[in-house]
Amino acid sequence: MFGLLSMVALFFCIGCGENFYYQKKYTLDEQQWTYADSLQFEMTIPDTSTTYNLYLEIEHGTDYSKQNLYTKIHTTFPDGKRLSEQISIELADKTGKWNGNCSSDVCTARIFLQEGAVFNQIGDYTFTLEQFMRINPLPSIKSISFMLEKTKPDQ
Fold it and tell me: pLDDT truncated to tens, each residue of the chain (155 aa)?
């Protein structure tokens, strides 16, 4: 009986959380992001009619000394084509107030990368994220997550 109640409680907790089509988190060794730490996020897109929202979630220490975090993101398509883009992720506003939710010494900022993204090919996609700051290793970066959320159709 206890096992059944545990399973029901587990399913209830899972159902209460966010429901992403794809989600992967990297916890960085020693809370540092090095140039050698390219983070790969691989997923399969089953159709071209669905739209998605893309997010990054950065967990960093409150001792992070910069306002932003420069990254490069590379997208590899099913046909092998690769596109690259430099992105500045704003972790704090101009006054120094952290974006996101902060506890005593850790902040978590969810960054909206793209709304209503359409994948024009069915198949396997890889997003590779690299840190692109002038500091190596980059201290106080604890973890990085990539999330892909299916959007609800307009009604």
Answer: 434 333 333 333 334 456 899 999 999 999 999 999 999 999 999 999 999 999 999 999 999 999 999 999 999 999 999 999 999 999 999 999 999 999 989 999 999 999 999 999 999 999 999 999 999 999 999 999 999 999 976 54
Tell me, what CATH number does 56's domain have?
2.60.120
Count: domains in the chain: 1
pTM: 0.83
The whole domain housing 73 covers: 20-150
Helix, strand, coil % over all residues of the chain, rounded to 5 = 10, 55, 35
Q: Hey, CA dihedral for 45, 48, 50, 53, is it positive or negative?
A: positive
Q: Decide if 12 is inside a domain.
A: no
Report, in angstroms and rounded to the nearest whole number, the Rg of the chain calculated over CA atoms. Answer: 18
Q: Tell how strand 123-131 and strand 106-118 pair up.
A: unpaired
Query: 110: helix, coil or strand?
Result: strand
Q: Does residue 74 lie within any of the structural domains?
A: yes
Cα–Cα distance, 41 to 76 (Å, whole number): 10
